């Protein structure tokens, strides 16, 4: 059984490490020192319909053991899909009922879904504290790189443009997405407004009409 030391790691890193380990192991143990991380590992196991157990190791450390069950285990891809639906704002298009479902294509051993788009309109995630919002958006983009099914497009407009600039901590993750076949597109009007033309570190400039058409015809649009 593989044991993963995830102590001191921020969400969602313990989940990502556990999911990766479960690809090649039937049973794993994850040690965390954060109660929320332990609860998230339990939720993942429940959604995958895997057996799990918790053990208090003392000094604030919890060991979560997760074991695959052959008769009722859901796939990791199912978990990825449900986590997107449960955790993010998802919009189904009006045309979805008439559009045939498109199976994700395999690109670099990663499934790329051309019915799935991520639209980012700000350099923070959520409302409240902007510093927390910056931490969340960075974690969100990193988590995208670890999904088994990737979006075909990630669209940036308004303040989201700032995530494509040199001082953005998300640039390496966005470059990784681009290398996996995800198309990174930036609103040209927004680039001009912020006067950052020629400063984008990743992606291509497009127009708002194109962004609208992509969002209108997508089967699923996720907005963090």
Automatic annotation (TrEMBL):
Pfam families in the record: TusA (PF01206)
Domain UPF0033: 2-68
InterPro entries to which the protein is assigned, alphabetical: DsrEFH-like, Se_metab_YedF, TusA-like, TusA-like_sf
SUPFAM superfamilies per the UniProt record, alphabetical: DsrEFH-like, SirA-like
Domain of life the protein comes from: Bacteria
Protein name: Selenium metabolism protein YedF
Species assigned in the record: Bombilactobacillus mellifer
Taxonomic lineage: Bacteria, Bacillati, Bacillota, Bacilli, Lactobacillales
């Amino acid at each position: 059984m593989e044991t993963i030391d995830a102590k001191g790691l921020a969400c969602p890193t313990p989940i990502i490490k556990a999911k990766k380990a479960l690809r090649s192991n039937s049973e794993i143990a994850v040690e965390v020192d954060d109660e929320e991380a332990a609860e998230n590992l339990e939720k993942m196991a429940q959604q995958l319909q895997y057996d799990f157990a918790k053990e208090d190791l003392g000094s604030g450390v919890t060991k979560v053991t997760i074991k695959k069950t052959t008769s009722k285990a859901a796939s990791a891809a199912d978990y990825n899909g449900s986590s997107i639906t449960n955790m993010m704002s998802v919009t189904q298009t009006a045309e979805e009922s008439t559009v045939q479902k498109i199976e994700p294509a395999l690109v670099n051993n990663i499934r790329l879904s051309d019915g799935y788009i991520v639209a980012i309109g700000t350099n923070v995630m959520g409302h409240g504290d902007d510093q927390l919002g910056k931490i969340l958006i960075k974690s969100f983009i990193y988590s995208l790189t670890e999904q088994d099914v990737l979006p075909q497009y990630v669209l940036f407009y308004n303040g989201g443009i700032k995530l494509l600039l040199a001082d953005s901590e998300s640039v390496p993750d966005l470059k990784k997405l681009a290398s996996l076949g995800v198309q990174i597109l930036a609103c040209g009007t927004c680039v001009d407004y912020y006067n950052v033309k020629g400063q984008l570190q990743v992606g291509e400039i497009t127009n708002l009409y194109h962004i609208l058409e992509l969002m209108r015809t997508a089967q699923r649009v996720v907005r963090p």
